[in-house]
């Protein structure tokens, strides 16, 4: 159920439609989003959503990228509905551009202008620290509220592809390239106009992040074939919720938020699914939230779950 006065924060994967968002948010809502280079975005989707499994005819091939780009339009049609819109121009699609407009240049120009007018700040992943300091200034936050922990890495994806495949990815995601290039250049211009205090804040944010990781985590190690990063907590910080939460992936965080919001309405099977999901991930990333951490929120009257609830 939506709060009477609307939500204060919507921080979730969702297709952008400003009027729909404003129906559930408070007046004066600030819109921000994050873009990354379209080649990295495509490779991340291709591997993390296991496109090879989605499109069975890619499985036997040593280089699935080359096979995909032999006939991308036909192969993309083999994907399920949940994955299809991620394969081409996924950032533009998420920001509201419908697939039939991908070949309409005037519609694309209008779309980029619309995003530019509706969003107060578009962050760039490749300039993350600079983007975060601008976000801090926009939101009147402090640097300690911008601490982050890296949980994913594109390891060999970008370096393993040929220049030819890289160009084909950019051509296939030409709308995302236009969107990204526009906001990358805008971000560079904004940064170039900042004073010395801005650059000092960027350096300080990097130092704060480094100090935080050293304080919280004893070990950092690759997991899932080197495409994800796992952490182990220092004994002195084994109960530190900030260290745990920042080491917890976004999917798990979404599940946990859902449990908190709808704990009295969810069937036991959904709660069991989240518990099993967390217990499986924790084998690879020991620093993330425990099921007992979530249980305390769901059942504040109980200190520990029963054996059959673990």
Order of helices and strands: HEHHHHHHHEHHHHEEHHHH
SS-based structural class? mainly alpha
Helical run tally = 16
Amino-to-carboxy terminus distance: 29 Å
Number of strands: 4
Mean pLDDT: 89
Q: Gyration radius, to the nearest Å?
A: 21 Å
The proportion of residues in beta strands is 5-15%
The backbone outline, from C-alpha atoms, is globular
Largest sheet: 2 strands, parallel
Instruction: Trace the largest sheet across and list its strands.
Output: 1-2
Portion in helices: 40-55%
Low-pLDDT runs of 5+ residues are: none
How would you characterize this protein structure?
A hairpin with a 4-residue loop joins strand 3 (217-223) and strand 4 (228-233). Helix 9 crosses helix 12 (196-216), helix 10 crosses helix 11 and helix 14 packs antiparallel against helix 15 (268-282). The two termini are 29 Å apart. This protein is mainly alpha-helical and 310 residues long. The protein is 52% helix and 7% strand. The protein has a two-stranded parallel ribbon with strand order 1-2. It is globular.
Summary?
The chain is mostly helical and 310 residues long. Helices cover 52% and strands 7% of the residues.
Summarize the SSE layout with pairings:
Layout: H1 18-24, E1 32-35, H2 38-48, H3 51-54, H4 64-68, H5 72-76, H6 81-87, H7 90-94, H8 105-118, E2 121-124, H9 128-139, H10 163-172, H11 174-192, H12 196-216, E3 217-223, E4 228-233, H13 241-246, H14 250-262, H15 268-282, H16 291-298
Helix pairs in contact: 9-12, 10-11, 14-15
């Amino acid at each position: 159920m939506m709060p009477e006065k609307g939500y204060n924060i919507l921080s979730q994967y969702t297709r952008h439609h400003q009027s729909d968002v404003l129906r559930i948010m408070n007046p004066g809502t600030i819109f921000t989003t994050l873009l990354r280079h379209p080649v990295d975005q495509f490779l991340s989707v291709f591997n993390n959503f296991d496109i090879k499994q989605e499109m069975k005819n890619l499985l036997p091939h040593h280089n699935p990228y080359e096979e995909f780009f032999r006939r991308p339009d036909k192969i993309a049609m083999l994907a399920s509905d949940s994955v299809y819109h991620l394969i081409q121009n996924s950032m533009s699609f998420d920001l509201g551009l419908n697939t039939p407009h991908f070949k309409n240049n005037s519609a694309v120009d209008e779309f980029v202008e619309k995003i530019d007018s509706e969003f107060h700040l578009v962050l760039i992943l490749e300039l993350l620290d600079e983007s975060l300091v601008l976000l801090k200034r926009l939101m009147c936050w402090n640097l300690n509220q911008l601490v982050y922990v890296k949980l994913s890495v594109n390891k060999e994806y970008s370096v393993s592809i040929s220049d030819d495949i890289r160009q084909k990815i950019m051509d296939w995601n030409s709308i995302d390239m236009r969107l990204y290039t526009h906001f990358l250049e805008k971000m560079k211009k904004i940064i170039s106009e900042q004073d010395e205090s801005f650059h000092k804040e960027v350096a300080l944010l990097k130092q704060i992040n480094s100090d935080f990781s050293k304080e919280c985590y004893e070990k950092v190690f690759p997991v899932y074939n080197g495409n994800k990063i796992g952490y182990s907590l220092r004994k002195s910080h084994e109960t530190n919720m900030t260290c745990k939460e920042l080491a917890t992936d976004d999917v798990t965080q979404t599940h946990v938020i859902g449990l908190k919001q709808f704990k009295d309405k969810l069937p036991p099977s959904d709660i069991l699914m989240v518990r099993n999901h967390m217990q499986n991930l924790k084998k690879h990333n020991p620093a993330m939230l425990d099921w007992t951490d979530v249980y305390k929120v769901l059942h504040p009257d109980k200190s520990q779950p029963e054996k059959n609830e673990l």
